[in-house]
Design brief:
CATH superfamily of the largest domain: Glycogen Phosphorylase B
Radius of gyration: 21 Å
Shape: elongated
Strand content: 15-25%
Number of domains: 2
Number of helices: 16
Order of helices and strands: EHEHEHEHEHHEHEHEHEHEHEHEHEHHH
Strand order of the largest sheet: 3-2-1-4-5-6-7
Oligomer: single chain
CATH architecture of the largest domain: 3-Layer(aba) Sandwich
Helix content: 40-55%
Number of strands: 13
Mean pLDDT: 94
CATH topology of the largest domain: Rossmann fold
Largest sheet: 7 strands, parallel
Low-confidence stretches: none
Length: about 375
């Protein structure tokens, strides 16, 4: 921002390891590198979270208002006190934090819409978001599909479309890691290996993935599912019913996603809806082809040069795509080479620069 040190507060509901929270942390780190004064406020207590520890390692202060579950009006005056003490130039909110900031703060505010607007908020909260966007809060869309949804739901076009970013250098493929991780998982070096990463919830539609994988044509392949969630037990039961046995490994929550990607041949996303998933960006940065449902901003990431897109919920199409790459690993590797080149656009430093420019424009306009 023209060399000026700006006080920026990133407000998130929590510091649990999920996509939007990880974006907020990477953005805080990137803006700090650009010379700004950053604080992250977590509505829920962040004690013991890995993202909280990551912020501590970066010397970025974290504050909390110790919000209780559900709508907690008592959190509003606590948040107002925190913001008065911090005296930010800009407040930037994510997910459900916006409604608390609206009640506690009257200065320049940005809100990133991390999902399609119809999935971002519901009922009264959606109405509050729309009202906020009309009266001064700057919405930021993470992709064109999200921008279109903001126009569709709230009747306005966002000024800013800023893609989420990742630390691309963390995901560079390492052949030695591939050999080691496959050995740890009890997998042959030459077995075609698929990986899905994400919460095991309805949105991700693991049932479609497992059903697609159950085809006899993929009997020689393996599937890893990294993540946990309310539907994990149901997914494991379905895998058993489908007779998948040892061909599918449910790995739970993992902190070594980069290593799992290095061991994998093809990344799969079977979601019914998405914003702009970090998991796809990370897979591409690791040099993997991506098979994904054409939802949200996914088609803005994956093209015919980097993977295969299928309709959401179309098990036959998903299965056919998995068969196509499992039976033609040279093609899969060629797609992965192009995916790495494409992933260079997703760097977190680029994201930070674009937010820096957006904040500067807003502050200049406000003078």
């Amino acid at each position: 921002m023209g060399g000026c040190n700006v006080r920026i507060v990133e407000v998130v509901p929590s510091l649990d390891v999920a996509g939007a929270e990880r974006v907020a942390v990477m953005l805080a780190q990137g803006l700090q590198e650009r010379g700004h004064d950053l604080t992250v406020v977590s509505l829920y207590d962040p004690h013991g979270t890995s993202l909280g520890a990551e912020l501590a390692d970066s010397a970025i202060p974290v504050q909390t208002v110790s919000k209780r579950a559900g709508l907690d009006l008592a959190a509003v005056p606590r948040l107002a006190r925190v913001l008065r003490q911090l005296r930010p130039d800009v407040v930037h909110t994510h997910l459900h934090a916006l409604k608390y900031v609206l009640a506690a703060w009257r200065g320049p505010t940005f809100h990133t819409v991390h999902n399609l607007a119809e999935r971002e908020a519901f009922g009264a909260e959606r109405w509050v978001h729309g009202l906020a966007f009309r009266f001064g809060v700057e919405p930021v869309a993470i992709g064109q599909a999200v921008a279109d949804s903001i126009h569709r739901i709230h009747g306005l076009a966002p000024r800013w479309i800023i893609a989420n970013g990742i630390a691309t250098e963390r995901f560079r493929a390492d052949p030695a890691t591939r050999v080691r991780v496959r050995a740890q998982l009890g997998l042959r070096a030459d077995v075609p290996l698929f990986l899905a990463v994400g919460r095991i919830e309805r949105q991700k539609n693991h049932a479609a993935l497992l059903t697609a994988f159950a085809t006899p044509a993929l009997a020689g392949a393996q599937l890893l599912i990294a993540g946990d969630g309310a539907l994990r037990t149901a997914a494991e039961a379905l895998a058993s019913t489908l007779g998948l046995g040892a061909r599918v490994q449910f790995l739970g929550i993992r902190k070594d996603i980069a290593e799992l990607l290095a061991a994998t041949d093809v990344f799969v996303l079977s979601s019914d809806w998405e914003g702009k998933p970090l998991s796809v960006m990370e897979a591409m940065a690791a040099g993997l082809p991506v098979i994904a449902t054409a939802v949200g901003c996914v088609p803005e990431l994956v093209s015919e040069d980097t993977g295969l897109l299928v309709p959401a919920g179309d098990v036959a199409a998903l299965s056919a795509a998995m068969i196509a790459l499992a039976l033609d690993l040279p093609r899969a590797r060629a797609l992965g080479v192009q995916a790495v080149r494409t992933a260079a656009r997703f760097d977190a430093r680029t994201m930070a620069r674009h937010y820096d420019e957006a904040f500067a424009e807003r502050l200049t306009r406000g003078r």
